[in-house]
Amino acid sequence: MKRIAERLYNGIIKENPTFVLTLGMCPTLAVTTSAINGLGMGLTTCAVLALSNLFISILRKVLPDKVRIPAFIVIVASFVTMVQLLLEAYLPSLNQSLGIYIPLIVVNCIILGRAESYAYKNPPIPSLFDGIGMGLGFTFALTILGIFREFIGSGTFFGNRVFPEEYGVTIFVLAPGAFFVLAMLVAIQNYIKDKMEAKGKDTSKIGSGCGMNCMGCPEAKGCSKAEKIKEAEDNDESEEEEKPSEDKEKKASAAEEKEEVKSETSSDEPEKEPAEEEDTEAEDDKESDEEKEESSESDSDDKKPAQNKPSNNKKKKGKRRK
Amino acid sequence: MSLPKVSSNPHIRSAATTQLIMLTVILALMPAFGYGIYNFGIRALFVCIVCVATTVISEVVFALITKKKIRVDDLSAVVTGLLLALNLPVSIPLWQAALGSAFAIIVVKELFGGLGKNFMNPALGARCFLLISFPVAMTNFETDCYTGATPLALLKAGETVNVKNMILGSIPGTIGETSMIALLIGAVIMLLCGVIDLKIPASYILTFLVFMIFFGGHGFDPAFLAAHLSGGGLMLGAFFMATDYVTRPTSAKGQIIFGIFLGILTGIFRVFGPSAEGVSYAIIFGNCIVPLIDKFTVPVPFGINPSEFRKGGKS
User: Fold this and answer.
1) Smallest CA–CA distance from A180 into chain B, residue
2) Cβ of B132 and A170 within 8 Å?
3) How far is CA B25 from CA A158, B123, B146, B245, in A?
4) Minimal C-alpha gap between B131 and chain A (Å)
5) What is the CATH number of the domain that holds B261?
6) Which residue of B has its CA nearest to A153?
7) Which A-chain residues 134-193 have CB contacts (< 8 A) with chain B?
8) Which end of chain B is more exposed for a tag (fewer CB within 10 A), N or C?
9) Which of A152, A167, A184 to mutate to test the interface with B (most CBs of B within 10 A)?
10) pLDDT given at position A49
11) What's the gap in Å between the CA of B29 and the closest CA on chain A?
């Protein structure tokens, strides 16, 4: 239950697809000319999103990994077709005003994004509510946008006249107005977020939807959790490396000084393993210390240009691990 | 031995301040402004007062809200207000003029960082904002003195126009654009004071002329070309708007490219577009590609081999 509530909160506020993730901009900018259009588009997307999330999640163990995207599209497209037929039958006016944007829900990046980053990795019930949460967040954003644009642009609120039409600023009903209002709303949202951060509340974007795998995650860039995960991974690797190398270092350090000159010139040394490239600073420090000692002892080292030193390092390490 | 004391650069300072330049521009706009009042009556003055007052108040209010230094005394807000007023028809409702002025200062200028950081000419941004928002009010040129369409609209409809009146300015149009002579007097004032140079206006107007000769549909017909030169906002745009320091390219080469681009765009909009006028859209389009022009026309520093510099610049 807690997880369901968390999913809904995440979709509507924390990871609002429009204001925070800025996904699905095409329908956002194109159909929000009036509040009712925004609401209609939002709810349509919400229905498709919830159902497609549910089914993708159910089928996630059956779908082969390589063809998952086409499979997602087939699932999403089936639901979009159903929803469109329903709209045509029961809400023809809304269907008319949304036009091409209903079939385009198939390629809406919110839906594919949630399928890929949540539904494909999580059980059906949380996926369903993730879809509902995201859909409601999208609906909320589109309706707000629509209300502002309709109100300023033509002086009505859900079709009810508030002030005479001649005072409406038509540009807000047209495409530029969508950008103005969206920019303002995102600015307000960021302002509130900054205030919350100043008060010490946690506003980090990624909730439990994170699969701890930043490869292929659309939100990895700028994600605070991604940095933590990467740090943790780096630390793990360095710990593994640290122990064997320390043992060997003690033994090797004596021998190394003698073999110094040889190791620099010999090119038969084994290649460095790829994992070693992420060396920790601690290791580097030790080596640079060693190097100072070595260089003070051996004359040939002093004369070498600075660029050669990193390669020295690599070779030495390779030898040490033998 | 004591070293000579050298202050930090710049070592040579020009006497020109923002305030002085803006004052020159205001002075140069006066002939067109005066002619506008003479031509359209006292309401033109009211429109101007509303625009200038709103721009100045908006700038002060924005500075107060964002706790910035109030810099109204550099007069740039006054110039924006005045230019906008000269770009509006005299019959425009005053609240629309005020809305446009506030838009020019707050959205186009201050939200992008204030004077010197806006990417688009504020007055023209506001004019296009109003033109899209209130298409009827913005193209309603019927006044007590004149009725009917502007000469350019007539030309577009295939009718003949009186070129002499167009050059003098006794035609329908926005407040400041009608008189070619008054605008040229202003342009000469600015040229003599060194506020602008001819690179942008000349390349703009020449390109436009060439475009009209080839694509205007009348070939080299002096009356037709003169009508297109003196009609609409071409003179106002070429001398007062396209040369805006902030929104033009910085290098000489870039400015000429900018002028040619504007000329072609204006021609396309006037000949092939749905409306008779195209100067304001052409200039704000041009403003948008200025960063691109600047990027490709970086001047080579003194003492560096040009070909090597370009190679280095690209990588």
Assistant:
1) B107
2) yes
3) 47, 14, 29, 12
4) 9
5) 1.10.3430
6) B133
7) 167, 169-172, 174, 176, 180
8) N
9) A167
10) 93
11) 29
What is the DSSP code (8-state) at residue B196? S
Q: Is the ipTM reported for this complex over the cut 0.85?
A: no
Angle between helices B94-102 and B122-133 (to 10 degrees): 130
Q: Report the alpha-carbon angle B136-B98-B31, nearest 5.
A: 85
Across the interface, do A170 and B135 touch by the CB < 8 Å criterion?
Answer: yes
Q: Region of A38 please: left (phi>0), alpha (psi -120 to 50) or beta.
A: alpha
* Tokens linked to A100: 């091409």
State which residues form the domain around B169. Answer: 18-296
**Alpha carbons A304 and A319: distance in angstroms, whole number:** 20
Tokens for B28? 């140069």
CB B254 within 8 Å of CB B274: no
Interior CA angle at A141 toward A138 and A144, to 5°?
Answer: 145
Half-sphere exposure of A267 (CA within 13 A, CB side): 0
Gap between the Cα atoms of B228 and B212, Å rounded: 8
Selected for mutation to probe chain B from A149, A165, A167, A169 (highest B CB count within 10 Å) is A169
- The total domain count for chain B is 1
B66 within domain boundaries: yes
Give residue B172's identity as a one-letter amino acid code: P
The CA distances from residue A71 to A49, A52, B256, in Å, are: 15, 11, 54
Asked whether the beta carbons of residue A169 and residue B107 sit closer than 8 angstroms, the reply is no
Residue pLDDT tens, chain A, 322 long: 788 888 888 888 888 888 888 888 888 888 888 899 999 999 999 999 999 999 999 999 898 988 999 999 999 999 999 999 999 999 998 898 888 889 989 888 889 888 988 899 889 999 999 999 999 999 999 999 999 999 998 888 888 888 888 888 888 888 888 999 999 988 888 888 888 888 876 655 544 345 455 555 555 555 556 666 666 666 665 555 544 444 545 555 555 555 554 444 444 444 444 444 444 444 444 444 444 444 444 444 444 444 444 444 444 444 444 4
Tokens of B314: 């690209």
Maximum CA pair distance of chain A? Answer: 93
